[in-house]
């Protein structure tokens, strides 16, 4: 279990210890090849968003569009 930030610490240092910016995350195969990683290691320094799905429920997802290999 790890603690992840909704808004990355590197971009929002003032939110580093704001409880509203923290969430629990799994270690996601940390240390393995990038293709085998998920959760916290895979997210990297991207922001987490939670758009509404078609039924109006919040869906948590990490955007990988700015992901660096």
Helix-strand blueprint:
Blueprint: E1 2-5, E2 22-25, H1 39-43, E3 48-49, E4 61-62
Antiparallel strand pairs: 1-2, 3-4
Report on the structure:
The protein is mostly beta strands and 69 residues long. The radius of gyration is 13 Å and the shape is globular. The protein starts with a strand and ends in a 7-residue tail after the last strand. It has a two-stranded antiparallel ribbon. It contains one helix and four strands; from the N terminus they run ββαββ. The mean pLDDT is 75.
Features:
7% helix; 69 residues
Number of strands: 4
What can be said about the biggest beta sheet? 2 strands, antiparallel
What do the pLDDT scores average to? 75
Low-confidence stretches: none
What integer value in Å does the Rg equal? 13 Å
> Beta fraction of the residues?
15-25%
Question: CA-to-CA gap between the ends?
Answer: 24 Å
The percentage helix is under 10%
By secondary-structure content and strand pairing, the structural class works out as: mainly beta
Task: State the helix count.
Answer: 1
Strand order of the largest sheet: 1-2
- Helices and strands, in order, run as EEHEE
Shape assignment: globular
Structure, briefly:
The protein is mainly β and about 70 residues long.
């Amino acid at each position: 279990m790890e603690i992840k930030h909704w808004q990355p610490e590197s971009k929002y240092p003032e939110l580093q210890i704001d409880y509203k910016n923290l969430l629990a995350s799994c270690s996601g195969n940390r240390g393995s090849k990038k293709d085998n990683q998920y959760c916290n290691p895979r997210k990297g320094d991207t922001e987490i968003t939670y758009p509404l799905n078609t039924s109006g429920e919040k869906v948590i997802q990490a955007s990988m569009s700015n992901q660096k290999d």
